[in-house]
Specification:
Length: about 675
Amino acid sequence: MIFLLCIVGYIVLGLVAWVHGDPRRAAYPTDSQGHFCGQKGTPNENKTILFYFNLLRCTSPSVLLNLQCPTTQICVSKCPEKFLTYVEMQLLYTKDKSHWEDYRQFCKTTAKPVKSLTQLLLDDDCPTAIFPSKPFLQRCFPDFSTKNGTLTIGSKMVFQDGNGGTRSVIELRDAANGINKLLDAKSLGLKVFEDYATTWYWILIGLTIAMVLSWIFLILLRFIAGCLFWVFMIGVIGIIGYGIWHCYQQYTNLQAHPSSVLTIYDIGIQTNISMYFELQQTWFTFMIILCIIEVIVILMLIFLRNRIRVAIILLKEGSKAIGYVPSTLVYPALTFILLSICICYWVVTAVFLATSGVPVYKVIAPEGHCIHENQTCDPEIFNTTEIAKACPGALCNFAFYGGKSLYHQYIPTFHVYNLFVFLWLINFVVALGQCALAGAFATYYWAMKKPDDIPRYPLFTAFGRAIRYHTGSLAFGSLIIALFQMFKIVLEYLDHRLKRTQNTLSKFLQCCLRCCFWCLENAIKFLNRNAYIMIAIYGRNFCRSAKDAFNLLMRNVLKVAVTDEVTYFVLFLGKILVAGSIGVLAFLFFTQRLPVIAQGPASLNYYWVPLLTVILGSYLIAHGFFSVYAMCVETIFICFCEDLERNDGSTEKPYFITPNLHGILIKKQLVPQKQKE
């Protein structure tokens, strides 16, 4: 009931946020009066760009505190294209009035060309100077360029600020330092978008091949699990070996180029990621990492060779179960749809909450020495108030969207609630899938005569039982995980806010807490997964099922070590093989190395964009399919442990497990005991 009430409250919150929110506030820039730039049906319809009167003020410390540049901002139709001060414009205005027409588009509508500089600063109707700029993210920023290795703007290194002072381009660059990074990020973003637009159909083809390959592996596991395992091994080792060889080739080729002797410390942090691939240091690091992974895989194969044989037998049994319940292979698609709905609803609700309210204006002091700074104000009467007299030069600028109603006061709380219920729903969807799959595979296991005793539509029946009878248990288990995840997010938030004030000890404690909660979260997920299996088998509540699952696992701890982890390792190799195989083909294709099969796109900015997308997508697809196998094996293992405790193999109490798997698991259980004796 609590879970359902939270969902109802979540829906109500989304509706209220939809009524009060306005996503246009996130899409359009807002001037100092709270008006949108470029919005249709408004006076600013043709003024799509935001212009800052004095960008040099953006170096003020109040920028970080208020997330606003302490200068007047207006909407304009274009950015300035030349240097010109207000005083120079007045001198030219006496000869040619057209200069005022060019200058006034960067002023307020009430501005006049005959004001003195003192009156202009007091009324704040016009900028004291303009300089060449270009639009970026619908805002005017300095148009920097490099001439003979020197940073310039409009072919100048110094310029007049309109207040009688001379400023250098370096000062302007410092004022827009964060903007320069955004400019590079925009260039990177546009290139990435172009690459996606060029290769999207090839990406879909690669993901389709990954899905077909995953299907083929799952089918082959039923018939040739042992042989397929060695295919996994050889394939993974070969793919990693190819990566080592390619990194070594790149490393040796770069030795012939003088620029390759540069290091990451020389070039610094760059948004142009391709620069890193021109360094020897990058490829040498990749090669070392791949070598370490290759050694770890080989050592695990050597030391786990006996347990891997048992895992192969379990996979064969799991293949039979999936063969009798083939609908389980389609269930990951339903989980993906439900997760997509939860994610979309959370994002939309967050956007509408963030854009709820009316424009709120606050006092901003360019010099940062006003006792009334950050107080709310009314821009229409601000110049006649005592604040304007007490703080000369202070501005009443738009700050954010909010309000004084009860709803607006609790918007931060609503954001927390939105995130918490989102985490709860995500974990509930995962728990529902695990319980439904466990119920279907448990139905297969407890059928004495397979497949004759297996009822029709076992997955559909198990899903219905989980919804009808076990919603509370699944909600309780997912609530525990959601609480831990929420606490981890709070820790990360505090770490981000207090990063500058932390010392070495506090950072060490923070890392320890992060590590401990990560381990605890994974332990709880493991216990919850087995609790859901017990719920699917017996229909008991979560606490009773979790207790029974824990005691059962402790009584069979040796079998747990043999089955779960080794089986997951084998399936993980299968995921790596699918993603690696598709990744190698995508690499050869996007780098124009497979002209015989197909001609790849030749106009890519970064070939790694579609390559990483295909690799990540292939791994997620393989994970979706192989996770069904993992749940199948774990369910069969729990049922087997229950089978051993409830039955003795006699005619009255026969075992439900197949004789082959029973002999293997019993043998693996007895060997350690004899060694101990």
